[in-house]
Structures are given as C-alpha cells and as structure tokens.
Design brief:
With 88 residues, the protein is mostly helical. Helices cover 75% and strands 0% of the residues. The longest helix is centred in the middle third of the chain and has 42 residues. The radius of gyration is 32 Å and the shape is flat.
C-alpha cells in the first residue's frame, strides 16, 4: 500500500519538476522576434477575414436565388387548427 502511495505521489512531483525546468529554459522573445510574430498573426487574421468575406459574398446571392425560387413554388395552404385524432 505504501508503494502505491509513493508511486501516486511521484507523478505530481515529477510534473512540477519538469514544469519548472521548462520555464527556466524559456526566454522572452527579442523585439525582432516579437514583431515577426505579430506580423504573422496579423497576416493570418487578414487571410481568414478575406476568406470569410468572399465565402459570404458568394453565398448571399445563392441564398437569395433559392429563397426567390421557393417563393415562386406554390405551397399548400396550412390549416389554422390542427385536428386531433379521435379514438372510438
């Protein structure tokens, strides 16, 4: 039982130890690296924005055509009251 507890207790200790080693190895980016990262993120946002814009630009006329065609097709009249089935 004691061995299981020590094995169970080692997992968080090892995680904390590896985490602190990782944080100690990390360095802050230089100004040049930070600017490069910001540019890459901005380009990504712009590309995704343009893709979304063009998809919407293409789908709005298609949607309007489909709605217009649906309005031309006569639909059956809808009853005002729904009749419930009667059991006899």
């Amino acid at each position: 039982m004691s061995e299981r507890f020590t094995e169970f207790a080692e997992i968080p200790q090892q995680f904390v130890k590896e985490g602190t080693q990782f944080v100690n190895r990390c360095t802050k980016p230089s100004k040049q690296e930070y600017i490069q990262l910001c540019r890459a993120v901005a380009v990504g946002f712009a590309v995704m924005g343009f893709i979304g814009f063009f998809v919407k630009l293409i789908h709005i006329p298609i949607n309007n055509i489909l709605v217009y065609v649906a309005l031309l097709i006569p639909s059956p009249p809808t009853p005002r009251f729904k009749l419930l089935p009667t059991s006899r």
